[in-house]
Amino acid sequence: MRASAGPSPPWRRAAAGWYCRSWRRRARSGAAARRSGAILIELYFHGHSTDEAALHLGIPDGTVKSRAHYALRSLRAAIGALDVA
């Protein structure tokens, strides 16, 4: 396991908060979005491996991988629908 370098900088916490709120609104709502958002935050904002994320969230490693896959697929679809120019 990687040693933590201390608390996340304020901009990273703010970005993580914005990401969760906007993704939940656009992609899905409810408990599934919270679970998927928590997994993506563990993996991409905190930089944890799937093993570490599984330990933090108290779920199996395979579940982390599966939920991350479907969450990223949903996020890509939501971003693709935004017509970014």
Short overview:
The chain is an all-alpha fold and 85 residues long. It is 71% helix and 0% strand.
What's the structural blueprint in terms of helices and strands?
Blueprint (H helix, E strand, L loop, with lengths): L9 H17 L4 H15 L4 H8 L3 H20 L5
Helix pairs in contact: 1-2, 2-3, 2-4, 3-4
As residue ranges, the low-confidence spans are: none
Gross morphology is globular
Number of strands: 0
Oligomer: single chain
By CATH, the topology of the domain at 29-85 is Arc Repressor Mutant, subunit A
What is the succession of H and E elements? HHHH
Strand percentage: under 5%
Main β-sheet, in a few words? none
* Number of discrete helical segments: 4
Radius of gyration: 13 Å
Q: Mind telling me which CATH architecture of the domain at 29-85 this is?
A: Orthogonal Bundle
Kindly state the mean pLDDT as a whole number? 76
Compute the separation of the termini in Å: 40 Å
- Fourth-level CATH superfamily of the domain at 29-85: Winged helix-like DNA-binding domain superfamily/Winged helix DNA-binding domain
